Amino acid sequence: MRATTRLAAGSAVLTAALAVTACGHTTAQPHRATSTAGSVSPSGAPSPARSPAECRTASLTWALVLLPERTGGRRDARLTVANEAPETCLFAGYPGFSVHNGKANSIEGVGHGHPRTIALRKGTGVTVDLRYTSRGAKGAGDYCVTENEALVSAPHDPDSDRVNVPVMETHHKAAEIDACGDSVSMSLPRYTPHPRVP
Q1: 43 Cβ neighbours under 8 A, 6+ residues apart
Q2: Which residue, 38, 93, 95, is CA-closest to 63?
């Protein structure tokens, strides 16, 4: 009878020990990362919206209008640019601008000042005033270029992306730029909510 009691007690102790061991042991589970791409950041805050890309020449519509002649031999023209793409883009700087006869003779547009970056939604644009010295004016010199179109591009686009834009009068008749000197002066681009382009 005493032996039977010891055996039962020993079995109880062994069962309790196994139970304690099982309770203290935890099987490791693999950690699965939760994707935060899209709406929230790892901190739980909303992810910032993607900023618009810079405007590209091909997605812009251009108009170049020769303004009435002024006294003193200085001529003015106006370059208007409109964003026709569905996405907003950033017009960040001066546009590329040149008038040329062939590859050798050309006069480049030169800006003065530091333009601000302008966000252009579809249908909005910028306007840049141009000023140059016309042929025969005092101080014009002998280096002159006469053209009925100019080469233009979006800021920071390479020269190879430039496109031709015809010169028109204010009544939409064909015209020519007859510019002399080293450069055509460009004003700071200004935002134009309803640009007039063809």
Answers
A1: none
A2: 95
d(CA 148, CA 57): 20
Find all residues with CB under 8 Å of 51, minimum gap 6, and list them.
90
Structure tokens at 179: 């510019």
> Which run of H or of E encompasses 12?
helix 2-24
The predicted model scores a pTM of 0.73
Say which residues have a Cβ less than 8 Å from residue 69's Cβ, sequence separation at least 6. Answer: 75, 134
Identity of the residue numbered 183: S
In tens, the pLDDT along 107-140 reads 999 998 999 999 999 999 999 999 999 888 887 8
3-state secondary structure of 107: strand
SS3 at position 116:
coil
